[in-house]
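Annex B. Sample input.
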Amino acid sequence: MEDYILEMKDITKTFPGVKALSDVNFKVKRGEIHCLVGENGAGKSTLMKVLSGVHSFGTYTGDIVYNGEVQKFKSIADSEEKGIAIIYQELALIPELSVYENIYFGHEIMKGKSIDWNETIVKSKEVLEKVRLHIDPSMKVKELGVGNQQLVEIAKALSKNVKLLILDEPTASLNEDDSQNLLKLIKELKEQGVTCIMISHKLKEILAIADTITVLRDGATICSMDAASEHITEAMIIKNMVGREIDNIYPKREKVNIGDVCFEIKDWTVDDPVKGREILHHINMKVHEGEIVGLQGLMGAGRTELALSIFGNTPGYKITSGELYINGEKKHFHSPKAAIQSGLAYVTEDRKGNGLVLIQDIKYNNSITNLEALQNGLAINENEEIIMANSYCESINIKAPSILQKVGNLSGGNQQKVQIAKWLFAKPNILILDEPTRGIDVGAKYEIYSLMNKLVEEGMSIIMISSELSEVLGMSDRLYVMSEGTITGELSAEEATEEKVMAMAIQS
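Annex B, continued. Sample output.
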């Protein structure tokens, strides 16, 4: 008989107007790496929140059997006491505190009535050693890169003697090297007796690491696959996730009609006063009408910095030289508003942080880039606003009960569609997409790729920044590669290969 550390039986969870989970059954073997996959909104995170006590006992139906006992977790503290820890995509660290303070925050090592700081530092070093993070524990968390912060989160979980570790999209914000290090660590934790549940949209990572793969769709369990005994492919996982076969992850454009140059920067050089150095060096770049131009490079190459410096320069960089042209006309944007008025739009990679107003509804978020178009005297024409929001919801397939749904309650894929719709309402000619598919599932990715194709077929131009090399190769007509703030190469879609791009990306 199989030894299961966890069995979740007939779990049903309902929110107002939405059944998030419907009789879900989920079993995890002791000491395995179990990957949980599904489209955004399939119920993965909700299921893990039930398990970890975020959704407390009594707010759902069904049973959680952990280590052979039925559990009634009323809080996160209850599940942590049993050795269950969850690490979310948005890390829960306090930047201004030291590493050791973060690791033992909430379960401090006491000596009498005082915190034993010496013992805290000693124990912190021990758990940091377990995650192979060789740093001074007195460092402030804000001084660490995202990859190392992720390791601190895992060290924090290990300090609580975790037996079941849940990782929600752990590599979503990591570069390739940090992702590989993290996957290696998860395998090492398995050898140390820690059972892992990992939620991820990165199918290659799942196939590389999983012992078992469970697929959820529309709040129900579709299947569990034994990765050791079955030959599982990406296509099999996708079919179970979306309920249909997707022959080509990157849809082909029906008509490619590349026009004249509509955007150009020459000798673009930028200083960052905060960092006290030059961050972009003599960038030359062109975009044609009806073209998707990929911008590829390793993390820290300067891609987002380039986009921000072009789009009104919100970080306050110093542009020391260079010229920017829209349709042959020289421009200088002192604000995003000026860029928008010239037909430029920027979809940020951080949709939750500064791309959307999460506490507001879809209608509000769709309107904010172009309120002038809805003005009726001094007021907003609400009827027009409703018609507009419904139109975008329908045209780009935003799945929501209504346009009055708060954006914070939508899945990642639908949030991203709202963010794109918001900028489409500004009627741009040139759309910059920064990591447009980060943290969203295969089905939603396909929809966004199809939308991109539709937009360029209609004459729009797109600059796409992406850390996923296959995505850049699959969608771009032409691409630029950046390294350390410099353009190191330009390739057509026909001549671009992973090897060529990576060779350019590591040039210094």
